[in-house]
Amino acid sequence: MMGLLAAVTIRTRTATCETQNGFCPDWIAKHWTDYLDPMWQHLQLVVVSVAFGFVIGFTLGVMAHRRRWLVGPITGFTGVLYTIPSIALFTLLLPITGFGFRTAVIALTSYTLLIIFRNVVTGLANVPADALEAGRGMGLTQRQRLWRVEVPLALPEIYAGLRIATTTTVGLAALAFFAGAGGLGAQLMTDINFKSNIVLAGGLCVVLAVVLDLVLLGAERLTVRWEFVGR
Amino acid sequence: MIDRVLGTRSNGAVVNEPPHFQAPRASGVTAATLEFQHVAKTYAGAGEPAIEDLSLSVAAGEICVLVGPSGCGKTTAMRLVNRMIEMSSGDILLDGHTVRDRNTAELRREIGYAIQQVGLFPHLSVGENIATVPKLLGWPKDRIAARVNELLELIGLNPSDMAGRYPSQLSGGQRQRVGVARALAADPPLMLMDEPFGAIDPITRDRLQNEFLRLQGELRKTVVFVTHDIDEAIKMGDRIAILEKGGVLAQYATPAELLMRPASPFVADFVGADRALKRLALQRVRDVDLWRAPLAQVGESVAALSGRAREHDLPLVLLVDEVARPLRWLTAEQVAGDTVPEASGTTPFCVDADDILRDALSALLQHGVQYAPVVGPDGAVTGILSLELITQFLGGQAAGDVEEAPAAADRVLPA
User: Fold this and answer.
1) A226 to B168: CB separation less than 8 angstroms, yes or no
2) Which residues of A fall within a CB distance of 8 Å from B120?
3) How close A103 comes to chain B (CA, Å)?
4) How far apart are the C-alpha atoms of B415 and B412, rounded to whole Å?
5) ipTM score of complex
6) Which residues of B are less than 8 Å from A127 in CB distance?
7) Is residue B329 within 8 Å of residue B345, measured between CB atoms?
8) Contact flag A152-B123 (C-beta cutoff 8 Å)
9) Residues in A touching B82 (Cβ below 8 Å)
10) CA distance B109 to chain A (A)
11) Least confident span in A90-94, A138-142, B147-151, B177-181
12) Is the CB of residue B82 less than 8 Å away from at least one CB of chain A?
């Protein structure tokens, strides 16, 4: 276990508040900068994993949209990935991909696939049939219909999937230290019995999740304007 | 009179001269001919063919309405044209060229397509929706923008207000209009319209139909128009193709001929027992030889007036202003003096010369009057329409042979 935590600062408690394991604003004010690097690692884990997850999940979703028989098998496969306990997956991957960022990203990516894939498929399936019929009748090719009609109209559901995937990945990435990838989870484990540490590390996880969610919401507002117009 | 009203020639043959297309054909207008040649379509897995053997030709600039009961293959027939459905055998010629060896996407961009559900893209603004096909065709931006503005004006929507709106912000009627504008965007020589006014309330539908006919009067596109509503078919069609199950062409004729001479019991049944009344929808008030109005102006000599009034059965005299706009009816007592008095009363109920006869009849009955002054676009009286005239009109046609129709020449004066 200590090997996993080699990268983070181990602190000793000195002040009264700290020795009594209280909630110590002074300590937090003094030490919060120690958490910035782990938070940056955490953010990288989340963004890279969700980005990979989006590319793979979106590609699978588009494939399965054209070939409906693929929906079942892909849902099954990504569902199985989703249910593997993360610690078990890290352990399984360690001999293959080694210790560090890469292993963590592979595991975290695999957890985003089910959500993103399902939302892409549902979003594409919910595109109004009359719009597609009109598009076909006006001479849009299949590819043009996909990129100009189906994907834009599926965006609200795709964004919904991305937001869920991102939020859950922020939580799951707290376990990435098992794969040796650091993050706020590693910082949390430096002193799992110290309340101030837990509040600070855990609080930063929550802040990260909220900020990323707001970023995605903002992106949705910018790219899916038609959803937000007054009726 | 009958010749003009019915669009018949002296040999009795009915020619294609519907009342709403009287403007001369403009030259240089893009319209294509369309020809179905022994077209058949059997859907995979279906025992019966949807269309057995359909041959039909549509002249350039005509509205051809495909009408029939559900399952008659009318929509299938329409969708074969732009190859939304591929025909099993036979051929369809667009301007003399087969559609079979065309690239489907390119073919469809050349053919306007409007459907009942409209199918506007919810994520694109009204302007972007209309610009769809021009964009696909690679028109330059400024040309597209100009075209979008032009079309919005054409369908009566203010470009600066409407172009940026999303479809969800439009009323049903506005959506249908935008759908038609979008189909017209690239100035296609052929329009396919599948119940384009089907999903809206009757009042809006009536208005959109009139608007489209006005547009068509200018644009003169070749149009294939599918509907299940015979009244809409009669109103919109230059020619109507009535289809029976299996796409069998029961009759292909002008609305007037269809109503006068249904080719089979099926057609007669489909057209309806009220087909005599339906003919009233084919004619406008101005097409009828109206009675001459017994006009009088204030201060006129009654002696001169009574000489004129005797030409009519009308017991009343119509008081008009100096530009012949109707003021009120005067009774015999009111014109008993030397000159026409300035009697008080309400403005009489009038019929518009541009109204169709059916609406005019309805208005007469609704107001409980036997006759009413007809006014032109400038508000001046052009004549008198009476229930008697309408009855004669119907009776003349019901006789079947228009040549023998009683002309009532003693009463009908030249317009």
Assistant:
1) yes
2) 131, 134
3) 40
4) 9
5) 0.81
6) none
7) yes
8) yes
9) 137
10) 5
11) A90-94
12) yes
Determine the pLDDT at residue B405: 35
Question: CB–CB of A137 and B109 under 8 A?
Answer: no
Rounded to 5 degrees, what angle do the CA atoms B178, A137, B141 make? Answer: 60
Question: Which alpha helices (H) appear in chain A, and where do they start and end?
Answer: 16-19, 25-31, 36-66, 71-83, 86-97, 101-125, 129-137, 142-145, 151-172, 184-190, 195-223
Say how far apart CA A76 and CA A73 lie, in whole Å.
Answer: 5
**Contact residues on chain A for B78, CB-CB shorter than 8 A:** none
Facing residue for A131 by CB, picked from B82, B105, B122: B122
**Residue A126 to residue A114: CA distance in whole angstroms:** 18
Give DSSP secondary structure letters for A129-142: HHHHHHHHHTT--H
Measured between beta carbons, the chain A residues lying within 8 angstroms of B192 are: 137
From residue A171, how far is each of A100, A102, A164, A206, A216 by CA, in Å? Answer: 18, 18, 11, 8, 17
- Residue B105 Cα to chain centre, angstroms: 31
A130, A155, A230 ranked by CB distance to B119: nearest:
A130
* Inter-residue contact B117 to B197 (CB < 8 Å): no
- From residue A199, how far is each of A22, A159, B171 by CA, in Å? 11, 30, 54
Q: What is the largest CA-CA distance in chain A?
A: 77
Q: How far apart are CA A172 and CA B389, in angstroms?
A: 86
Beta bridge partners of B113: B192
The reported pLDDT for the residue numbered A98 is 80
pLDDT digits (tens, 9 = 90+) for B98-149: 999 999 999 999 999 999 889 999 999 999 999 999 999 999 999 999 999 9
Any CB–CB contact under 8 A between A182 and chain B? no
Q: Tell me if A231 and B168 make a contact (CB, 8 A cut-off).
A: yes
Structure tokens that stand for B18 in this block: 């519907």
Q: Which residue has the tokens 């009287």?
A: B22
